[in-house]
Amino acid sequence: MHSKKIQDSKQRLGKDLAILAHHYQSDAIVKHADLIGDSLQLAAAIPKLKAKYIVFCGVNFMAETAAVLAAPHQKIFLPHPDATCVMADMAPASLVKNILEKLGQRKKIIPLAYVNSSVGVKALCGQYHGSVCTSSNASKMLEWALNQGDQVLFLPDKNLGENMARLSGISSEKVQVIDIRQRGNNLSLEKHSDHKMLLWPGVCAVHFRLKPEKVYRILNDNPQAMVVVHPESHPDVVNLAHESGSTSKIISFVSKAAPGSTIYVGTEDSLVLRLQKEHPDKNILPLGAGYCSNMAKTTPEFLAETLENLDKDNMVKVNEDLAGLARTAVETMLKVSS
Ligand code: 13P
Ligand code: SF4
């Protein structure tokens, strides 16, 4: 029933409508999408889209980033208004602002925010001449950020930051997680004076479920098996895995594997289940991350309802002052990583 309603709306709206879906959306949503991608692909697509209505099946930071990049005549919609991201919520802009002010007292601090962050945090990145990154370009953006000042504050994902620091060859003594308690008053500037990279203590609630003991056990019991994980996973999990990367990189790793391979995939299960269906000649197994409860909020029912109400005033809105600074930070990413 909802599928039929979605198809009817698509037909009615034609070229005026574009439905975008992140790889973590369920098959019931993905089958209606005009474009499916990882966070970088979906953000990079926005400036090229001609559609008047862009419906973003994902979570709020993705739709907000789209709103920041969209042309004035375009309207962005998020089918479920409460589809947030647990990790993004771990870095409230007011606290990030206090911490940047404190760290900026002694050094030129460059914030580099994972795209999984609020518009307020992205605006602070623009204000402090930093930028944003996704899991596809985090390593390149970190290299860029290290050249812009004395110290990089990477936020909110501690694991992605640590994994990228290792890839960039930064020694572990130069990287430290900061104390965000007491509105930043606990931070000791002396303690961090020699650090090149400071990490915000945030994590993804889904990839947090992946444990190194399990990967170790799998590889011990089945030395032929391969393990591919998302870099939001703990560094010990990433170090044990054969490969790590964005959702697109995971998809490409699985596609390139030889028929008959056994591959444990450490990322959100909607994507793992799709890979199982698309590669019946390979033995694809979930490593145990489970589902993202926020990604799962978008159902055909909410999508159908959104498509029927595009002319009501329910589009994603971002504060214009914040949007300008956030746009600077996101456009820097698109330029540096292109
Ligand atoms: P990517 O698709 O960029 O790898 O993002 C993963 C993710 O956790 C999005 O919330
Ligand atoms: Fe946020 Fe993790 Fe869900 Fe992605 S998978 S939306 S990072 S909680």
- List ligands, each type once: 1,3-dihydroxyacetonephosphate, iron/sulfur cluster
Structural class: alpha/beta
Strand arrangement, major sheet: 6-5-7-9-8
- Give the ordered list of helices and strands: HEHEHEHEHHEHEHEHEEHEHEHEHEHH
Write down the overall mean pLDDT: 97
At CATH level 3, the topology of the largest domain is Rossmann fold
Name of the CATH first level of the largest domain: Alpha Beta
CATH architecture of the largest domain: 3-Layer(aba) Sandwich
Q: Provide the domain count.
A: 3
Number of strands: 13
Strand count, sense and closure of the main sheet? 5 strands, parallel
- Uncertain regions: pLDDT < 50 for 5+ in a row? none
How would you describe what is shown here?
The chain has 338 residues and is of the alpha/beta class. The strands form 3 sheets. The chain has a 5-stranded parallel β-sheet, with helices on both faces. It has a 4-stranded parallel β-sheet with strand order 2-1-3-4, with helices on both faces. It has 15 helices and 13 strands. The mean pLDDT is 97. The longest helix has 17 residues, at 320-336. Bound molecules: 1,3-dihydroxyacetonephosphate (13P) and iron/sulfur cluster. Residues 59, 85-87, 116, 204-206, 268, 292, 294-295 line the site of iron/sulfur cluster.
